Amino acid sequence: MTTHMTESGIRYEDIVTGEGKMATGLGQTAIVHYTGWLEDGTKFDSSKDQNKTFSFPIACGMVIKGWDEGIIGMQEGGTRKLTIPSELAYGSAGAGDVIPPDATLIFEIELIEVSE
User: Fold this and answer.
1) For residue 85, what is the domain's CATH number?
2) Which residues contact 12 (CB under 8 A, 6 or more apart)?
3) Is the whole-model pTM more than 0.85?
């Protein structure tokens, strides 16, 4: 797998390249399965563990910036690994007792569906 980096510092690898509709941004809604880990390998969340997909409007600020940016260019059926720097995740605030301040987060996102 080839690792790519966005201008903002997100590293990503396409684990599976999808063949469906492409996520291009504003005006679309994504339905995904995801798992998130801290850099030390600690899993902190997974839609698969809950057996429930997650949907969000792309590029609307409803999820962390790293997701809004990192899903662009994915196609339905694809799976992408994102390594998101803290400033594009929860920053110096962290998130409760789960994500410490200044944490780099690693997500595996499976894009199930994109709708307009």
Assistant:
1) 3.10.50.40
2) 3, 4, 5, 6, 70, 80, 81, 82, 83
3) yes
